[in-house]
Fold this protein.
Amino acid sequence: MFYTTDTNQHGMAHDPFKAIVAPRPIGWIGTKGRDGSFNLSPYSFFNIVSDRPKIIMFSSSGRKHSLKNAEETGFFTASLVSRPLVDKMNVSSAPVDYGVDEFALAGLTPKMGELVDAPFVAEAFAALECRVTEVIVPRDLQGQESESVMVFGQVLGIHLSEEIIRDGRIDMVLASPVARMGYMDYADGGADVFQLKRPPR
């Protein structure tokens, strides 16, 4: 099968694009509004983009609450979604009005960052405190703006639970990070962990 994305005529019941680019880590983005309200939302358009300096990115499809708060305050957090928290993560994805506290909605404990004015999930095995470095609206080949907005943030602080550390490393089986697959499918990243050594130079 081959099809072009301008027509998107793949003949399938559902668009396979996001299923091809998988698994995708989930950024559980915590922000605080100017009005003091807390917001927590999961984003599967999320990833690390730089190690030196440490920079991560999440992409908002449309102008959602996380984007609004991050733009206005300059801060956000990203909490690790592990298998034991996946149901609460799902609850926090509900399309609620601005100002509704998804931490409370999902029965989670918000904890304020040490360095940023934004909350993270206290129950998470790990969380990143970030300061916004830039906000970008991608453009297509014709120069038209995408409906998505990318938020980049430099990681200033990292919270890490001792529960998942073994022999000086994060034990990925214990961390059991959840990843978004295609459609409504998810994967437990700790279920089948294996190692590969890179070829020597």
Notes: The radius of gyration is 18 Å. The first strand starts at residue 24 and ends at 25.
